[in-house]
Design brief:
It comes from Faecalibacterium faecis. Pfam families: Acyl-ACP_TE (PF01643), Acyl-ACP_TE_C (PF20791). This is Acyl-ACP thioesterase domain-containing protein. By secondary structure, this protein is of the alpha+beta class. Helix content is 16%, strand content 39%. Strands 1, 2, 3, 4, 5, 6, 7, 8, 9, 10, 11 and 12 form a 12-stranded mixed β-sheet that branches. α1 packs antiparallel against α3. The longest helix is centred in the first third of the chain and has 18 residues. The chain is globular.
C-alpha cells in the first residue's frame, strides 16, 4: 500500500553540535518537531486550524536511535510518516538519511491530541485530512524504560527557564534531553555521543518551576527521572556510545 510521507532537508547548524562537532540528541528531536509541524501546515493544519477546534498536539513518548551521529554542517534528508490515531496515540516515524542516501538516524514519536478546554486526552482527533494519515506506518523503536528504583543519585533541582520553554509555556519536549545529558556526570558524556534514548513525558514542567532530577546506571546505559511537586514528570533511558561510525 502506498505510504503518504513528507520530506525536508536540514543542515546541522553550529549551535546544534556538541564539543565533538556531532549533532546533539536534543537537536534531532527539534528537527523532528519542526518537520512534524511543517507537514501539518502543508495540509492546512496551522495554528488557526487547531485554535478553532480547541485542541493541541502533545508528545506522550518518543525514542531516537543513531546509526551514525551526523556532523556539523552535514545536510540531511528527513522523511516523516504519520499513522492514524490508535488508542489515543498518533505514531510518527521520521528517518534521516545522509548525502549518500544511507539512513543515519530514526525517531519514533507518539503524539496525543489534547482538548484545551477540557484538559483531557482525546481518543480521536475528530477530523480527517486526505493523503496525510497512513493506516499503518512500519518501523518502531523500543519505547520501554529500564527503570531503577534503588541507587538513584540526585543531580539537583533544575528550573524550566524561558529559553527552554515552548508556545504552551512548558519545558519543550526536546529540551528534556538537554536536561538529562546535563544531569549525568560529565565523565559519562565524554565517553561518546548518545546513540539511543527513550523518554516518557508524564507531567509537564511549567515555565519558572523546578524539578529534581535523579540518575542511576541501568542495563546498557542510564536511567534518569525528574520529579515535580512530588510526582514523576518524566523518565528517560539512554545509551552512550564509545565511537561514531
Amino acid at each position: 500500500m502506498e505510504q503518504f510521507f513528507y520530506t525536508e532537508t536540514m543542515t546541522v547548524m553550529n549551535a546544534d553540535a556538541d564539543f565533538r562537532s556531532l549533532l546533539k540528541p536534543s537537536a534531532l528531536l527539534r528537527y523532528v518537531e519542526q518537520i512534524s509541524t511543517d507537514h501539518a501546515r502543508a495540509f492546512g493544519m496551522d495554528d488557526q486550524f487547531f485554535k478553532e477546534r480547541g485542541v493541541t498536539f502533545l508528545v506522550g513518548k518518543q525514542a531516537l536511535k543513531f546509526d551514525r551521529v551526523p556532523q556539523r554542517a552535514e545536510t540531511l534528508t528527513l522523511t516523516s510518516r504519520a499513522q492514524v490515531s490508535k488508542h489515543g496515540s498518533v505514531k510518527r516515524i521520521t528517518t534521516l538519511t545522509d548525502a549518500e542516501g544511507k539512513e543515519v538516524a530514526m525517531v519514533d514519536c507518539r503524539w496525543i491530541v489534547a482538548s484545551l478546554a477540557e484538559g483531557r486526552i482525546l481518543r480521536e482527533p475528530g477530523w480527517t485530512v486526505e493523503n496525510f494519515w497512513n493506516d499503518t506506518v512500519e518501523g518502531e523503536l523500543p519505547l520501554q524504560l529500564h527503570k531503577c528504583k534503588d541507587g538513584l543519585t540526585s543531580a539537583g533541582e533544575w528550573t524550566a527557564h524561558y529559553s527552554q520553554c515552548d508556545l504552551n509555556g512548558h519545558l519543550n519536549n526536546a529540551f528534556y534531553l538537554d536536561l538529562v545529558c546535563d544531569a549525568l556526570p560529565l565523565e559519562v558524556m565524554r565517553k561518546g555521543p548518545v546513540t539511543f534514548a527513550s523518554i516518557n513525558y508524564h507531567r509537564e514542567i511549567p515555565m519558572g518551576e523546578t524539578a529534581e532530577v535523579f540518575y542511576a546506571p541501568s542495563a546498557d546505559g542510564w536511567y534518569v527521572v525528574g520529579k515535580h511537586n512530588g510526582q514523576t514528570s518524566f523518565e528517560c533511558y539512554l545509551e552512550v556510545g564509545k565511537t561514531n561510525v
